[in-house]
UniProtKB/TrEMBL annotation:
It is a peripheral membrane protein. This is unspecific monooxygenase. One of its GO terms (molecular function) is arachidonate epoxygenase activity. PANTHER family: CYTOCHROME P450 2E1, CYTOCHROME P450 508A4-RELATED. It holds the Pfam family p450. The gene is cyp2a6.11. InterPro entries: Cyt_P450 (IPR001128), Cyt_P450_CS (IPR017972), Cyt_P450_E_grp-I (IPR002401), Cyt_P450_E_grp-I_CYP2A-like (IPR008067), Cyt_P450_sf (IPR036396), Cytochrome_P450_fam2 (IPR050182). Its EC number is 1.14.14.1.
């Protein structure tokens, strides 16, 4: 009898959630027809139909079944997914105002303290912080000779560091993290760290944990069931501990800057933010306050470190797998640059093959496959479907970077995707690793400079060798969630 009673209670609960789910769907369809999609279960939504370690591949497969615009339920929340270059471009570029807000992502909302900073914010806050961040980055050299010189200097420190490996196998992870992070640190904090600095290594380890945590099954579970996961123990809580430690360090730096601030001579990004705070101290509802300073600086530091360094690490793994491509890049380096001067950005226009390889690395590694979620700012009819205001939208960047209409061999690493019949570099509209439209990455220009200068400087000075047979090198990601993270590997830097 007890079992029958428990079963009856369970059935009543399931019926309640099913009814609640049905009411929500009917309400959303009241003004029109939501895009089709797999049938959700009460409370769980379509969670059981997603492959935990490769969520974005599950979403791409749904796109093949339901079309390039479809609805999936992450828990009880309906999310519209956009697949293919044409659809993503129409949404982000042609309808940029309507699709330009940041969507619901509980992990991001928690670490941004409810939507502070550039990445997670919306509305007037986002407009002001993005405008300020772009202007400040430009003032400190982004896109100019001064930032190029900082990257060249860091590339020199990096290649010098490889000398100490004496051709022995090393894990490149933190070599690249240290070099890439020091570029953004010089802009944000006003100086670089020594490579052996234990505090610096601790920070980089924390950033790596956060990026991996976002891409893990636990991170995805939190995004789908935040209220439940927020009350449970588990590895997802390490994300928040790591973020707290990083933000404590940044807060210390901000306080140090406050004590030595000279408004007439800003030294870095933090100084500029503090000066803006002073200017707007009497402005009601100002977005320039201590919480904004903390989260905006965190965005710059985190985004400016992990995505580029992971792309570099993945890129060198690809070059290990394809030594013929590495050799051809080195021939172009020798022809255009030689061995006696540092590579510079001006060289890129005369190095079409190298430029094509770097673009293909970014396309192939597909570093943020699902993109960061967007949200529609008003009720909109899109592709014949009704999408209500406030609906979260995932523009699947992976579907763009692997669209067979844009790239002849979408699942194969082929620099020919960016080279025309005359051997010249050719652009491809499907190249969207930085997203597109109003929410395109603030640091796109800096990231592209870093990838070119670091890769060419490394290959100018070293030949890459794998301690294992290249046939055994696996290019599939170790983790595929928020980000694609390469499998661990070692390589040898052999002086040329």
């Amino acid at each position: 009898m007890e079992i029958l009673g428990a079963t009856a209670v369970l059935l009543v609960i399931c019926a309640f959630f099913l009814l609640l789910n049905t009411i929500q769907v009917i309400r959303r369809q009241g003004k029109g027809k939501l895009p089709p999609g797999p049938t959700p279960l009460p409370f769980l939504g379509n969670f059981l139909q997603l492959r935990g370690e490769e969520v974005f591949k599950s979403l791409l497969e749904f796109g093949k079944k339901y079309g390039p615009v479809y609805t999936i339920h992450l828990g009880m929340e309906p999310v519209v997914v956009l697949c293919s270059f044409d659809i993503v471009k129409e949404a982000l570029n042609d309808n940029g105002d309507e699709f330009g807000a940041r969507g619901h992502m509980p992990l991001l909302e928690k670490i941004s303290h409810g939507g502070h900073g550039v990445v997670a914010s919306n509305g007037e806050r986002w407009k002001q912080l993005r405008r300020f961040s772009l202007m400040t980055l430009r003032n400190f050299g982004m896109g100019k000779r001064s930032i190029e010189e900082r990257i060249q200097e860091e590339a020199h420190f990096l290649t010098n560091e490889f000398k100490y490996t004496k051709g022995q196998p090393v894990d490149p992870t933190f070599y690249f993290s240290k070099a890439v992070s020091n570029v953004i640190c010089s802009v944000v904090f006003g100086d670089r760290f020594e490579y052996e600095d234990t505090e610096f290594l601790r920070l980089l380890g924390l950033l790596n944990q956060v990026f991996r945590g976002f891409s893990s099954v636990w991170g995805q579970l939190y995004n789908i069931f935040p209220k439940v996961m927020g009350k449970l123990p588990g590895p997802h809580n390490m994300i928040f501990k790591s973020v707290n430690s990083l933000q404590e360090f940044i807060m210390q730096r901000i306080n140090m800057h406050q004590e030595t601030l000279d408004p007439s001579s800003p030294r870095d990004f933090i100084d500029c933010f503090l000066i803006k705070m002073q200017q707007e101290k009497d402005v009601p509802q100002t977005e320039f306050h201590m919480q904004g300073a903390l989260n905006t600086t965190f965005d710059m530091f985190g985004a400016g470190t992990e995505t580029v360094s992971t792309t570099l690490r993945y890129g060198l793994l690809i070059l290990l797998k394809h030594p013929d491509i590495e050799e051809r890049i080195q021939k172009e380096i020798d022809s255009v640059i030689g061995r006696n001067r540092a590579p510079c950005i001006e060289d890129r226009s005369r190095m079409p093959y190298t430029d094509a390889v770097i673009h293909e690395i970014q396309r192939f590694v597909d570093i943020i496959p699902m993109g960061i979620p967007h949200k529609v700012t008003r009720d909109i009819q899109f592709q014949g479907y009704f999408i209500p205001k406030g609906t979260t939208v995932y523009p699947m960047l992976s579907s763009v970077l692997h669209d067979p209409k844009q790239f002849k061999y979408p699942d194969i690493f082929n620099p020919g995707h960016f080279i025309d019949e005359n051997g010249k570099f050719c652009k491809n509209d499907g190249f969207m690793p930085f997203s597109s439209g109003k929410r395109i990455c603030v640091g796109e220009g800096l990231a592209r400079m870093e990838l070119f200068l670091f890769i060419t400087t490394i290959l100018q000075n070293y030949t890459l060798r794998s301690p294992v047979d290249t046939e055994d090198l696996d290019l599939t990601p170790e983790l595929s969630g928020f980000g694609n993270i390469p499998r661990p590997y070692k390589l040898c830097f052999i002086p040329r």
